[in-house]
Amino acid sequence: MGEMEHFKQFWNQRYANDMFLINNTFFKNLDIAIQLHYSSNNILVYNKIRLNALGLLLYNSVNACTIMYNLIQDSILGGLSIESWEKTPSHNVLHHNSFIDNGAIVSGFQARDYGYNNTWFDIIEEEGNYWSDYLGFGTYSIPGSACSVDLYP
């Protein structure tokens, strides 16, 4: 796919299953760079997501997806949001991502989780994500009703 710049909701997948999104750059999108809904078993890895309105949005029954080794940086509203209007996104695994200065302009968020039973770290390696606003001790709390925690930031 390569480098995608100045598009609105560039990668918007509905009912997408068993797909890979690997080594792409999403830069300066005016809306959401990557959006998944009603999708399962997708892998997003080694993508660079920078300077977008919102980096990633997973909503309405996005299940069992793996999101790892991505750079999510300087998105205006926030880096990654897991949300639900109908069916709860669940059992997604997110680790080894770098969340850097997202939501800083409008008091937004690095990430937030309104899903269910999503895991924000690698349970085997016991390693989580990089958070530019992490204070260096303890766990990292992910805002949202899921009360998710990155145990190994």
Report what the structure shows.
The N and C termini lie far apart (30 Å). This protein is an all-beta fold and 153 residues long. Strands 1-4-7-10-13-15 form a six-stranded parallel sheet, with no helix packed on it. Strands 2-5-8-11-14 form a five-stranded parallel sheet, with no helix packed on it. The radius of gyration is 14 Å and the shape is globular. Helix content is 0%, strand content 39%. Strand 16 and strand 17 form a beta hairpin. The N terminus is likely disordered.
Structure summary:
The protein is 0% helix and 39% strand. The chain is mainly β and 153 residues long.
Report the mean per-residue pLDDT as an integer. Answer: 90
Main sheet strand line-up = 1-4-7-10-13-15
Q: What does the largest sheet look like?
A: 6 strands, parallel
Would you count the extended β strands for me? 17
Poorly predicted ranges: 1-9
Rg is 14 Å
> Into which percentage range does the β-strand content fall?
35-45%
Query: Structural class of the helices, strands and pairings?
Result: mainly beta
Question: What share of residues is helical?
Answer: under 10%
